[in-house]
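Dear support,

We are seeing what looks like truncated structure output for some complexes. This example has two components. We would appreciate it if you could run it in full and send us the complete C-alpha cell output so we can diff it against ours.
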Amino acid sequence: MDEHESDTGLITIDVTRRTVIETGTTALLLTTLPRAALAAGPIDDNEPPAPPVAIELQINGYPYLLTLDPRTTLLDALREHLALTGSKKGCDHGQCGACTVLIEGRRINSCLTLAVMHDGQSITTIEGLALGDNLHPLQEAFIEHDGFQCGYCTSGQICSAIGMLAESRLGMPSYVTDDLTQPAAKLTDVEIRERMSGNICRCAAYPNIVAAIKQAAGMPT
Amino acid sequence: MKSFTYQRADSATLAAAATLKPGAKIIAGGTNLLDLMKLQIETPSSLIDINRLPLDKIEDTPDGGLRIGALVRNSDLAADPRVRQRYGVLSRALLAGASAQLRNKATTGGNLLQRTRCYYFYDITKPCNKRSPGSGCAALAGFNRIHAILGTSEHCIATHPSDMAVAMRALDARVETVDREGGTKVIPIAEFHRLPGNAPEIETSLESGEIITAVTLPPPPPGVQVYRKVRDRASYAFALVSVAAIVDCTRGRIRSVRLAFGGLAHKPWRSARAEQRLTDAPANTATFNAAAKAVLEGARGFGGNDFKIALTRRTLHSVLAETTRT
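Here is the complete output from our reference environment:
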C-alpha cells in the first residue's frame, strides 16, 4: 500500500502512484505512472522535474498529505492524485468554470492555481456537499429544475452558486448592481446571471440553473 | 508546463531579491501567469509565491486617499465600502473584468502586470515581437479586431487588457514598489505601463529586483464617476473600448474632467488635450465632438479594428452625455 495513516491521523499518499481515494472508503489503483505524467500540461523539456513539495490540504473536512511536483494544479491534485473527479476539467484555462471549487469558502478556478500554493487551506469540492444521502439544497434544486443536460458543468455550477450566494449575503456588488453605494444588492435574475457568468453551460440550461439557484436561495422561482 | 522550483517568500524584500535570478517569476493570484505557463509562453525556472506576505490590506491614507496592498484580491477591492463610496469608477471597472472566480484570486499588483490577450502572442507558432523579440508581428496583417488604434508601433499593436488599470489611470493612482535592499519607489501609473515602441516585450517600468507592494489612490476628484465597457458579450469578455470618466459638471458647464480609455492602446490611454477641450466648456455636442477628435488624434486602424475609431467616438459621447446630464 502506498497510502498510510501517520500517527498524526493524516492521510499520506505517495506521489509515484496514481492513488484513488474516496471519502470513507479507499481503493487503490496500482498503475504506476512516470512522475512527469502526473504534472499538468505538456512535458517536453527533457529536464528532470523540480523537487517535489509536501503539502497538507483539508479537503471536504479531511486532511490529506500530498507530495507533488510543483506544477500540479489544484484541479489535477484533486482528480489525478486523490480521485476526486467531481471537479471537471473543461478548458483548463479558467474560461469555463467546470473546475470551480471553494477555498476557505470562496469560489475559484482550480485549474488556474497550483496545489502547493494552498498548503494548510480548506477546500470544498462537489463531493463534500451532501451529508450522507442528504443532498445539499443546491444539488436538490438542480435536480428538481433540470439545471443540466449533459451534466459536465454541473459540479462547477453548484460550487460556484454556493460561493455566489455567500458573496451576495456578504453584500458584495456585481457589475449590474445599479447603486454600488447600497450595502447589498437584491438578487434578481439579472444579478444571478451576471454573477454566474464564469460558468459556461454548453447545453444552455441557463434558465433552469437560474431557477435552481433561486429556489436554493429561498426566492420565488 | 516546464518544470520549476517553488518557494514561498518570507518578505517582500526577499521576494524582490529573488526576481534577480534568471528565470525567476513572482506568483500571486496566478490566473494569468499559470495560463501562460501551460501554453509555454511563460517558462519560469523558479516561482516565488508571495501569497502569504502581509500585503492584503486596504488602508486610509492621511491625505484622504487609499493605500491598496498588492495582494488585495480584485473582488475584495471592488466590494470595499470606501471604494464603492468614493471610487465608484474603480469598483465598477473591477466588476467589469473577468469572472467572479477569477476576481476572487486575481490581485491588485498582478492585474497591473497581466499580459495582452493578442491572439498571436498566445499562439507560439506565430511571430510575435512581444513573446519572441525580433520575430515580427502577425497581428499587423492578421485578425486584428481586438487590437490597438493609438500609440501603436510597427513592432506591436497589442492592447493592455485590464479594466482596473483604466480606472486607476483616471484616478492618477501611484504604484509603490520595494527593491532587494528594501528601497521603496513610487511610480505614477501614467509612467508604469509603456507603449510598445521597438521593445514591446518591455511592458512596464518595473525593474528586475523590484516588486509591487501597493497602489495608492489620491483623494477622489469631484464629480460623477462612470466606467463604461463595450464588449462582444454582456459579461466575461475583454473590452473592445472602455471609458473611465470622472466628470464634474454644474448647470451645463464642465468644471473638471478625467478620461481614461481601455482597449485602445498598449497602456490605459489618457488624452490631456481632450480633457483640456472639455474643461470649463459647455456640455454640448460640439464640445463632445472636439473632445473625441482630440482623443482620436493620430488614431490608426489596421483593417479589422477600424471600427474602434467610430466606437470610441460614440462611447465617449454617450459617457459624456450621461455624466453631464442635469
